[in-house]
Amino acid sequence: MTDSLAGRKSPEGKPRQAAVAAWIGSALEYYDFFIYGTAAALVFNKVFFPDSDPATGTLLAVATFGVGYAARPVGAFILGHVGDRFGRKKVLVFTLLLMGVATFLVGCLPTYDQVGVLAPVLLVVLRLLQGLSAAGEQAGANSMTLEHAPPDRRAYYTSFTLSGTQAGQILATAAFLPVAALPEDALLSWGWRVPFWASVVVIAVGYIIRRRLTETPVFEQQETVSRLPVVELFKDHWRDVLRVVLAAVIASVSTIFTVYALSFAVNTVGLARTPMLWVGVLANVVALAALPLCATLADRIGRKPVFIAGSLGSGVLMFAYLGAISAGSYPLIFLVGIVMFGVVYSAANGIWPSFYGEMFTARVRLSGMAIGTQIGFAIAGFSPTIAAAIDGEDGANWVPVAVLIGVLCLVNVLAVATARETYRVPTERLGTKSTASIEPSAPVSA
Asked: Using the 8-state DSSP alphabet, how is residue 201 labeled?
């Protein structure tokens, strides 16, 4: 069941380098992932599903966004195995290249008017490849950063992976600001393709950055690695995998905010595209500051209280945000959107990279994080589709959508509440039954 790692020299941890590499890589990778969501909300219904009525076209376009999440659990099993058996670095390089190529090809696709049904079929195939890539991206980056980090600052350093994700959302939304301002004909013919073509930068820059990473000390210092990490994971850690699955549905807040709310505002309420895109940009800018602050708090008082507060607050504020959109009040939309997504959601979003990873030993950490999060994220990925199906015939009944998010946030809270608090557990004892903790007075260098 094991392969020997004896004789390997373990490098010293490099938390800052790992955090910076995770931030930049995640920003570039999730730029690719989220420009798809923006395009699905704004143009794909007209480019790839023009024969459908507007409501059905929007539903189908948003469903293709969810397809990427459906592929993620499959990718999690594959890339989790690779990362736990052969190292975190290999996963990070592969996922970046796969995402960049798939995204560039989306921008090259023919439209429905040009090739008929083949166009949406190819769109779905490329979205599946994006999903496979994303399945290993965050788990790999989080494992890499957590295992390089000082034990008393694991939440802080791993939060940079999510800061990178938020930066990717900013870049994705910002890329569509000038595109969305184009005349309708230009937008639908070539304008929407430009953000996808820009992913060639991802391939070049991301590859250079991640090839320079060193493997983590925790992985290198193992005497053995598991031949079948997934088997070991479900034998020894199945309860924690289930907890992560249920906790990860908190990502529905992000997908509803990013995809459904944008489509609801523009296509149903009739609000202007540009101001709604700016809500996402500003909320993510605020999140860049909020994420490390929330993570620092979690390093001081624990993961669970910060996480639970963010989950409950997000569930409540979703009612206010969708209500503000329905009322057409731009000041209220900006205020509630920034507070909900930029501040409150960050309390949960900035903690999970450390909290989930700390549930598992190094032998199965990447598999545990990848499989648990990607199954939960798959549910979250289809929440815009579910929302579009329950918001009434005219798409204007937002209350059931807010209730859906409230219920998912409660599920998240229950899962987190049953987990072990891990912020005082030394890194080498994570995932074990040891109760030893980090002494508050013990100096730990960065």
From this structure: H
